[in-house]
């Protein structure tokens, strides 16, 4: 059909979403995997440029707004994300990058918690025009990982999605009024 | 395109959208019961109750086991394993993040294609 693309792997259909898997691999570790239909260098770019990162880290359905997104992506550099979620005080997430290998590996700390936080490792693996992304959250203890799920309560994301599922049911989501300013 | 976690949630919520099925879950929360007993309890036919239990079973909210001529129902893994719900929350968050990331990456790809063409022209 498209002669120019003969030598490339068949592109995935535009609307097919790749599957995200989440697995608890040990008492202390969570692993998330996903394939993206683009070379690793582009996926890496979307993880390391703040103006791109801020567009997807907080999903549209979350109904929260990102007040600040500062990222100094180099070894020892810091990051800080601040969200307004309707509470009086914005939620903050911050830490430091401890490994930055262009197009293949990012490691950062999560220092917002009281005790030692998780260390997040993201690897980007080129697979013939696609990228296999693996994200590992390694927590200092089982308790910290168990509590990590509790911190999701602070993300209105889950409830918002639940709401979406409950209200959409049959209809087209576009028919529903917008949830308000983000 | 329905994403994996939403599809699962849809099945669960569809299962929970019926008052009888919610009643069955409540009942099974107290004690396991046979389909016959549940049918009697909710004053419906055996066939009707089998259908309801089938929907709950599909959603993973109920499991059934046939011993002799009696099919016993009990609360299923979705109800008992908190772990599943817990993982599901992470899954939802990441799946929706990554769906948005797809959009960002598609744009980067488009930009690059335009650039690439300009270079070769």
* Named CATH architecture of the largest domain in chain B: Orthogonal Bundle
Q: What form of chain B results from the Cα inertia axes?
A: rod-shaped
**Which regions of chain B have little confidence, pLDDT < 50, spanning 5+ residues?**
1-5
Report the top-level CATH class of the largest domain in chain B.
Answer: Mainly Alpha
The profile of the biggest β sheet of chain A is: 8 strands, antiparallel
- Fraction in beta strands of chain B: 5-15%
User: What distance separates the N and C termini of chain A?
Assistant: 41 Å
β-strand number of chain A = 8
Counted by DSSP, the helix tally of chain A is 4
The whole-angstrom Rg of chain B is 23 Å
User: Count of DSSP E strands of chain B?
Assistant: 3
Report the mean per-residue pLDDT of chain B as an integer: 81
Helix content of chain A: 10-25%
Largest interface: A-B, 39 and 32 residues
SSE string of chain A, helices as H and strands as E: EEHHEEEEEEHH
Number of discrete helical segments of chain B: 6
Set down the secondary structure blueprint.
The complex is a heterodimer of chains A (182) and B (121).
Chain A: E1 21-24, E2 29-36, H1 40-48, H2 50-56, E3 65-71, E4 78-84, E5 91-101, E6 105-109, E7 119-127, E8 130-138, H3 142-151, H4 157-168
Antiparallel strand pairs in A: 1-2, 2-8, 3-4, 4-5, 5-6, 6-7, 7-8
Chain B: H1 4-16, H2 19-30, E1 33-34, H3 35-41, H4 46-58, E2 62-67, E3 70-75, H5 77-80, H6 82-120
Antiparallel strand pairs in B: 1-3, 2-3
């Amino acid at each position: 059909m498209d002669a120019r693309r003969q030598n490339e792997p068949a592109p995935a259909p535009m609307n097919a979403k790749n599957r995200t898997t989440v697995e608890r691999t040990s008492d202390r570790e969570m692993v998330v995997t996903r394939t993206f239909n683009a070379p690793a260098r582009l996926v890496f770019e979307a993880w390391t440029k703040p103006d791109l990162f801020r567009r997807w880290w907080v999903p549209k359905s979350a109904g929260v707004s990102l007040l600040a997104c500062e990222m100094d992506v180099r070894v020892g550099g810091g990051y800080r994300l601040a969200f307004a979620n309707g509470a009086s005080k914005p939620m903050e997430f911050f830490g430091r990058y401890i490994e930055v290998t262009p197009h293949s590996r990012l490691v950062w700390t999560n220092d917002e918690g009281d005790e030692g936080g998780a260390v997040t490792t993201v690897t980007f693996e080129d697979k013939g025009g696609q990228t296999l992304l693996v994200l590992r959250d390694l927590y200092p203890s089982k308790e910290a990982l168990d509590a990590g799920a509790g911190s999701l309560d602070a993300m209105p994301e889950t409830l918002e999605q639940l709401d979406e599922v409950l209200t959409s049911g049959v209809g087209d989501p576009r028919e529903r009024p917008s949830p308000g300013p983000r | 395109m329905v994403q994996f976690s939403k599809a699962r949630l849809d099945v669960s919520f569809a299962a929970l959208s019926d008052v009888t099925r919610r009643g069955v879950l409540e009942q099974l929360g107290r004690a396991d019961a046979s389909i016959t007993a549940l049918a009697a309890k909710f004053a419906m036919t055996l066939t009707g109750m089998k259908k309801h239990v089938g929907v709950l079973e599909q959603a993973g909210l109920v499991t059934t086991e046939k011993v002799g001529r009696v099919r016993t129902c009990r609360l299923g893994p979705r109800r008992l394993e908190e772990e599943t719900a817990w993982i599901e929350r992470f899954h939802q968050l990441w799946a929706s993040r990554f769906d948005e990331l797809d959009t960002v990456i598609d744009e980067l790809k488009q930009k690059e294609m335009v650039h690439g063409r300009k270079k070769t022209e």
